[in-house]
Amino acid sequence: MYPHLFSEISVGGRVLKNRLTMAPLYLGYAEAGGTVSDLLLDHYRLMAKSGVAMVVVENSAVDYPAGSGSDRTIRADTDDNMEGLANLAATIKEQRALACLQINHAGRFAAIADPTLAPSAVQTFGRMPKALTEEEMRRIRRKFAEAAVRARKAGFDMVELHGGTGYLLSSFVSPRTNKRTDAYGGSLENRQRFPLEVVEEVKSAAGDFPVGYRFLADEWLTDGLQLAESVHHARSLASAGVAYISCMGGTYESFLLPHVLQSSRKEGYMVHLAAAVRKEVEVPVIAAGRIATGRLAESIVAEGKADLIGLARVLWADPEWPSKVREGRDDEIIHCHPDCDETCTKLVTRGKTAFCVRWPHDKIQEWKEKTGA
Ligand SMILES: Cc1cc2nc3c(=O)[nH]c(=O)nc-3n(C[C@H](O)[C@H](O)[C@H](O)COP(=O)(O)O)c2cc1C
Predict the structure, then answer these.
(1) pLDDT per residue as tens digits for the range 9-18
(2) Ranges of residues in the chain whose predicted pLDDT is under 50
(3) Nearest CA residue ID for atom 28, ligand 1
(4) What is the best residue among 20, 25, 358 to mutate for testing ligand 1's pocket, by most ligand atoms within 8 Å of CB?
(5) Known catalytic residue: 167?
């Protein structure tokens, strides 16, 4: 029924059996302290079993605590977590999906760091981050490379560098948060230098191992990074050899603005960002953001707006999305619906584990028993 959606594609030399991927989604399922829990394994088993070609595991910290988004962020910075990471990769691959680990430095949004680290001392939600020295930047580059090597050793098929959400890599590219006057600030060429150096160091350390990139196409802030500039950044990343570019918009500073909330309620609300990037680069591009139906997903691929579809809440709300679409049962999909008022986001920002209000009653009960929530 949807010939484009269910055709193979090669990404960084790995074959994806169809165009469906799970986009990274942090739900607070790791143990406090960032170890891999049974809840996390059960969740990713279900996501991989759904029939998507690749699961991109939520952001995992390359450094701790300075790079960690929260106390329940998976730690990719230590060999102590190797067994858990290996279990996670194996759990996904057992279900015939490729396993990709997103690795991240949370920068000025590192909830448990004090001080937070950023390109410049620009205040964020009342906290003043410390501007990084070049020596500290060298250390963080090495941390990214070490985490990628760890992911490879653990059995993951790829890594994805998190260059979105206003975390460290994207905060270098943003003219709003990067006020440096050295070789890492000012022109776009300078602002993108640090992320490009990270790509280079990760690639050279990890060897023949695909490195994807979560890409901030638009900050949705008037003084922030916008598409006119970010498409050039996308080209630079492609030239640096990233395996794919996964597009998103917004940062924690824009997600909750009324007009952003309003536009984020629409189906396919970030597809235009992917389409603009795809015109500029040869590498595969992923589109995400309320891609609610098979028809929409098929049209995105068929019309060349993106090569791959990223499903985050969409897949979590209904892990049968891929099979329902494949079998022409679109009308049976349980949709992630904006009217729930972003319950999942609110739960995780309060440090809780998330459940989906759209799940069937029995599943919510089972989840509550399992988590004690
Ligand atoms: C609760 C929550 C957690 C998220 N965690 C991540 C993350 O760890 N890494 C990331 O790159 N994007 C993350 N995202 C963004 C998603 O990958 C995705 O781009 C967005 O939710 C839109 O897709 P969807 O409508 O299918 O959910 C998160 C989004 C939500 C709502």
Answers:
(1) 999 999 999 9
(2) none
(3) 25
(4) 25
(5) yes
pLDDT at 1: 87
Q: Rounded to two decimals, what is the model's pTM? A: 0.98
Give the model's pLDDT for residue 253: 97
pLDDT of residue 138: 98
For the chain, strand residue ranges (E) read 9-11, 14-16, 20-22, 54-61, 74-75, 98-104, 117-118, 130-131, 158-163, 211-218, 245-249, 285-288, 308-311
Q: Measured between alpha carbons, how far is 23 from 311 in angstroms, rounded to an integer?
A: 5
25 lines ligand 1 (CB under 6 A): yes
- Determine which residue's CA is closest to atom 20 belonging to ligand 1: 289
Whole-number Å distance between alpha carbons of 311 and 213: 16
Name the active-site residue from 26, 29, 64, 167. 167
Return the H-helix or E-strand segment holding 295. helix 294-302
| 3-state secondary structure (DSSP) of residue 104 | strand
49-85 pLDDT, tens digit each: 999 999 999 999 999 999 999 999 999 999 999 999 9
Ligand 1 site, residue 348, Cβ cutoff 6 A: yes
Query: Which of ligand 1's atoms lies nearest the C-alpha of 58?
Result: 8
